[in-house]
Amino acid sequence: MTKGNKKRQLVVLTEEGPNDGLVGSINYALDRAGANQNLSLSEVAQPCAHSVFGSTAIGWYYDLPLGGKYSRIVCAISSPSVQGSFIDSIFYDMEFGQLPEPNDEPFLGLELTKNSLKDSGNMSTQRGTKFYPFQERYPNAECCYYIHTSTPIVKVPPSHERAFRRMLTCGVDVVFGTNKGFQTYGGSPYKSVREFVQVGTSPIAKTNFINELRDGTIEIQTNLNKNGKLLHDPNIGWTSSALWTLSCLNHRNHVYITKHNIAPPVLMKSFASNNPSKLVKVAIDLASKFESITFDGIGLVKSRANIYSGNYWKYANTGEKIGSIQQEIELLNKGYRTLFSNHAGCEKSFLVTPSNPTVTLPKGSNYGIPDLVMEHPNGKDILVIEAEQSQNYNNGCKQINERKFKNTIHEIKNNYYPNHYFKTYVTTFGASCLNRKNVLAETLSDGTTTFDFAKKPAYII
Questions:
Q1: CA distances from 103 to 77, 94, 117, 138, 338 (A)
Q2: How far is CA 22 from the centre of its chain?
């Protein structure tokens, strides 16, 4: 840092906890900011309550060595101002000690995924449209779909290639964060509507098709029905992404969405809703860019006010994940090791095994997923935590005593940690609950966290 310059900090607004994917995202942001700095995975975060931030924000920070562009990295837990899709992290370059307001312009918006390219490309396709409202609100910010992976990518499967080319067409960069640095996806945007129609749909697709009709109009065939409602994912994301891509390719003619299997009364109710689905929001906002968008003859009204007006984000002050994230950070500072995290609304981590390779926890109706699994510094005890808002304390007690919750603990113990003692607790966020049975920790509404390590666990396995 040049002598005389004001100290600066990188501020990250995020729904994620302090995991390796977020650290990789932060390092990518540091690279894009030209900071020539790096955040180590071994760096332990410092928790921040209201009193530390001097605002309503709750989160954590990392202090960086002197001499770089940034003196500190601040992570503040945030959430969407209105219900709907929200990218994982937003990055701001701020003066030291300052936090952004919703009208401030970020330099980067990032969506993080740990999904392997072996998984379906539908996941990537439906996530692409999460950037649409962000771009509408912050048109000058960079957008990045960040794929956190351990090894460099040699070949991108066709389903992901189609999804990534849609993103590039809409101004979203695709980057692989590997153990050897950042690898940019080498594909190219679609150059025309015709090319998108010809190669933008799987040749073996059974339900999703895009056709350019003789008069230059577009037909999108897709099933949007799930239990009689307009709720079918990933097709909602696939269709939203197709509409956005068409608009970016300057298609202005009619778009017909057909074979969606949604009854007209359900469609009309969805269009009129004050909080419509992701697809309807995107379609309503894009309607004025096309001659029309119709769902089997039912058209969207173009005169509706901008559905994405208003603030994009807010500092989070409710939700169990505020507690579970703060409690994880406190435990890390006490020498515990995170084996698994599942903060509400965040992407589940993998389970860290004794030799450090990661595995996926068992899935299905026979297994319950804890919010935190933390190894004690003594190397013998493991805390299994179900985090809840304080008013849901009883629900937490019920969950940890369910057979499926215990099945997961037995699975971890039998396969990976047979000599450890698994101690199960509830933790809370909101009002004080530390005096209640089986509550190991509480995080109050102002972000302050207190543990009672003398508390007896619900049970030990």
A1: 17, 13, 36, 9, 35
A2: 10
Q: Are strands 225-226 and 229-230 parallel, antiparallel or unpaired?
A: antiparallel
Classified by CATH at the fold level, domain 318-460 comes out as Trna Endonuclease; Chain: A, domain 1 (3.40.1350)
Residue 78 phi, psi dihedral angles, 5° rounding: -135, 170
From the list 457, 367, 347, the residue with the least C-alpha distance to 411 is: 367
Q: How far apart are CA 88 and CA 16, in angstroms?
A: 7
CB 260 within 8 A of CB 223: yes
Contact assessment for residue 320 and residue 282, using Cβ atoms and an 8 Å cutoff:
no
- Please report, for residues 89, 112, 127, 146, 165, the alpha-carbon distance to residue 185 in angstroms, rounded to integers and kept in the order given: 20, 15, 16, 10, 9
d(CA 323, CA 325): 6
pLDDT of the chain, 461 residues: tens digit per residue: 334 457 999 999 998 888 889 999 999 999 999 999 999 878 888 888 777 777 788 999 999 988 899 999 999 999 888 766 689 999 999 999 999 999 999 999 999 987 777 766 666 787 888 999 999 899 999 999 999 887 778 788 888 899 999 999 999 999 999 878 899 999 999 999 999 998 877 776 667 889 999 999 999 999 999 888 887 878 888 899 999 999 999 999 999 999 999 998 988 888 887 777 778 888 888 888 898 899 887 887 665 556 677 889 999 888 899 999 999 999 999 999 999 999 987 778 889 999 878 898 998 999 999 999 999 999 999 999 999 999 999 999 999 999 999 999 999 999 999 999 999 999 999 999 999 999 999 999 999 999 999 999 999 99
Q: Which position has the token pair 């209105």?
A: 82
Amino acid at 181: G
C-beta separation of 111 from 127 below 8 A: yes
CB atoms within 10 A of CB 290: 21
What is the Cα–Cα distance from 344 to 326, expressed in whole angstroms?
13
Displacement of CA 95 from its chain's centroid (Å): 26
- Strand 8-14 versus strand 72-80 pairing type: parallel
Give the global pTM: 0.92
